[in-house]
Design goal:
- This protein is mostly helical.
- It has a domain of 57 residues: Tetratricopeptide repeat domain (Serine Threonine Protein Phosphatase 5, Tetratricopeptide repeat), CATH 1.25.40.10.
């Protein structure tokens, strides 16, 4: 977040708060205010505004998804899960809700359900790079090395400057026995600012040497 944006936030918030007071039925005003509150780190107010948006329009899937993201960040996975499932019931082809659902399921160690959700997300939007990255880690956890490698390559293809994508590919290559190439991508991940696991680096060097 730039300094200019930080300086502008109080003004933007004041304007949106005024809009909400003048039009207490405006879904867009409350939704937008909730997003700006999120950027400002005013979590409780963001929750209140987004809940108001959903209250006004129970079919507002985007507000549900954003509200779910806040609860996910707070570690309230049950609430995040319920909101994304509700968003899917409203918009069954919503890729982002399925993507979020997969991440929540993965956090709860419900790997098969997480996989199903990620696959649904990619069915509706195959260009969601973060889903390919999350899918890589999930498939690695499940021991599906060939599929994990394919997912890792797709994630890097979509976001070639992503440190996480390079790290994921390094891990997938390691489990596929391509140690030298794995080290190249691990070095690139470090160059891009990723905090790589020193134990993994040590294991990889042992394999190369």
């Amino acid at each position: 977040m730039t300094e200019q944006l930080l300086e502008d936030l109080p003004k933007v918030i004041a304007e949106l708060e005024k809009k909400c007071r003048e039009n207490p039925k405006s879904v867009s005003a409350f939704h937008h205010l909730g997003l700006v509150y999120m950027k400002a780190g005013r979590t409780e107010e963001a929750i209140s505004s987004l809940e108001r948006a959903v209250e006004i329009d129970p079919l507002n899937g985007d507000a549900m998804i954003n509200l779910g993201a806040i609860y996910f960040g707070l570690g309230k996975l049950d609430k995040a899960l319920a909101l994304n499932e509700k968003a899917i019931s409203v918009h069954p082809e919503g890729a982002q809700a399925y993507a979020n659902l997969g991440l929540i399921r993965q956090q709860r160690n419900e790997l098969d359900k997480a996989l199903e959700a990620y696959e649904k997300a990619l069915q509706y939007n195959p260009r969601l790079a973060t889903v390919w990255m999350n899918l890589t880690s999930l498939l690695t956890m499940k021991g599906e090395d060939e599929r994990a490698l394919a997912a890792a390559r797709k994630g890097l293809e979509l976001e070639p400057d992503s440190a996480l994508a390079h790290n994921n590919l390094a891990v997938a290559l390691y489990f596929s026995g391509e140690y030298a190439t794995a080290m190249k991508h691990l070095d690139k991940a470090k160059e891009l600012g990723y905090s790589v696991d020193p134990n993994f680096v040590a294991r990889l060097r042992e394999k190369i040497n």
